[in-house]
Specification:
139 residues; mainly alpha; 5 helices; 78% helix; 0% strand; rod-shaped; Dpy-30_motif
Length: 139
């Protein structure tokens, strides 16, 4: 049970530390072992932090590439829509009237224009006339 705990917590670092103590043979092996373990811990923390930053950077690059791809697709779709619209406008027949139809249209609108003019000429029918100040007519 203790061995499983030690393997879980220390893994190979304790065996590496003890091998280093045996190789160097410092005057105070306990202090040397403690410093070696602290140093090992700071290195592993720094490596883990670097890995996390690399992962975040990779994810940011992937998102940026995906956004660029989406933007390019949207530009292409916009260009295709613009091309279709230009094609449709070129295919539409001319909407101008021919000269022989114009007098007929003028004749049809003439009675409406006369009726409108008669309504506006009546007293009180026009808002401009009703807003004008009234003058007393001397008798």
């Amino acid at each position: 049970m203790e061995t499983a705990y030690l393997k879980k917590c220390f893994g190979t670092c304790l065996t590496q530390a003890l091998a280093e103590v045996a190789r160097v043979r410092p005057s105070d092996p306990i202090e040397y072992l403690a410093h070696w373990l602290y140093h090992y811990r700071s290195i592993t923390v720094a490596e883990e932090k670097r890995r996390q930053e690399e992962l975040q950077l990779k994810e940011a690059r992937d998102r940026s590439a995906e956004e660029a791809k989406t933007t390019e697709m949207l530009k292409e779709e916009g260009y295709q829509i613009q091309q279709k619209c230009e094609k449709c406008h070129q295919e539409l027949p001319s909407t101008s009237f021919s000269s022989d139809k114009t007098p007929a249209l003028q004749e049809d609108t003439a009675p409406l224009e006369e009726k409108t003019m008669r309504q506006e000429s009546r007293p009180g029918a026009s808002s401009v006339i009703s807003e004008m100040p009234q003058r007393a007519i001397p008798s």
